[in-house]
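Late entry, evening session. Most of the bench is empty. Finally got around to the prediction I had been postponing all week. Sequence below, unchanged from the version circulated by S.P.
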Amino acid sequence: MSNNNLSRTSINLAEKLGRIEDFWQPRVVAEMNDYQFKLVRISGDFIWHDHPETDETFIVLEGVLRIDFRDGSVTIGAGEMFVVPKGVEHKPFAENEVQMMLIEPRGTLNTGHEGGDRTAQNDLWI
């Protein structure tokens, strides 16, 4: 059985990241079932938020990411990943620019239910 929607082109993450101009604006590069693979460039501090319905996976491609929790933090370097469990309040921070991939269900807002001016438009592909 063939899938007419099957793309036989690989996704170049560096090229896609190079097309993202703004910080804190995730862009979708692929989907698998109901999950989206998003690339994002970040720098500085984000806001405290959680995702009550889903875990969130951070994969650092370049730089050093710190994720703060109310009771501590975790530091993730290039080539490392971390899964924040659903419902756990967290706040990403990057002293210098970090390029990373997020894996989360389609429709997940980057600020959870907190809203505000850091909320990125959802489901934007690059």
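Two things to note before I forget:
The helical segments are 13-18.
The beta strands are 27-32, 35-45, 56-62, 64-69, 72-77, 81-84, 90-105.
Will write this up properly tomorrow.
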